[in-house]
Amino acid sequence: EEIVPNVKRAAPNILITGTPGVGKSTLCQKLAETTGLQWLEISKIAKEYNCLEEYDEVYQCPVLDEDKLMDGLEQVMSKGGNIVDYHSCEFFPERWFDVVFVLRADNTTLFDRLTSRGYSGKKLEDNVQCEIFQVILDEAKMSYKENIIHELSSTTPEELQENINRICLWLQQWFQDNQY
Ligand code: DAT
Predict the structure, then answer these.
(1) Other C-beta atoms within 10 Å of 140: how many?
(2) What confidence tens digit (pLDDT) does each residue in 102-159 have?
(3) Residue with the nearest Cα to atom 18 of ligand 1?
């Protein structure tokens, strides 16, 4: 068994999570451009690493091999400097993240965004319900220390800009606090 040393990262790892459609990729893309941190789109990486198994007919999405994915990501995450983008957050190792941002959008906005993405029926309902019952926020609270979790409203373009500014400020503070 490999022992992972608890070495301080040269740059922080940021987790951006939330229900599908809340605006994670939109935010992460802008953040990566602004900060130079690396955007890790977990859904894409899972495909590249061959971590998607059989298709779940009920949820209309492939089943993820989480252990294989975590093994594949360990090295890049240990180095730091990543923005991880995923609609779930409970199976990542807690030690990977310095901060967790949970994006939120209001129900009608999310409904419209997911409809234009082509979601319908159970898949559409489940995702809107997921947001109404703040499933991902609760998942984050069960998986990470509460003082590193920040909820961000992500409904309007103005809020998108505010969120980018806020995360950039957080990042500056991190570098100030973690100078060797
Ligand atoms: P996710 O990656 O969480 O699934 P996305 O970034 O693809 O979400 O965004 C879904 C849609 O909503 C997309 O058409 C862009 C739009 N959007 C995202 N954030 C927004 C914001 N803050 N204001 C307005 N529209 C936004």
Answers:
(1) 25
(2) 999 999 999 999 999 999 999 999 999 999 999 999 999 999 999 999 999 999 999 9
(3) 23
**Residue 6, domain member (yes or no):** no
Residue 4, in any domain of the structure:
no
19 domain residue, yes or no: yes
Judge if the beta carbon of residue 23 lies within 6 A of ligand 1: yes
Where residue 94 sits, what CATH number does that domain have? 3.40.50.300
Q: 9-24 as b/e, with b when 16 or more CB fall inside 10 Å?
A: bebbbbbbbbbbbbbb
For residue 156, report the distance from its CA to the centre of ligand 1, in Å.
Answer: 9
The pLDDT-based confidence of 6 (bands split at 50, 70, 90) is low
Mutate to test the pocket of ligand 1, among 16, 25, 26, 114 (most ligand atoms within 8 A of CB): 26
For the chain, give the percent of residues with pLDDT over 70: 95
Going by their DSSP bridges, the two strands 61-64 and 52-56 should be labelled as antiparallel
pLDDT at 53: 85
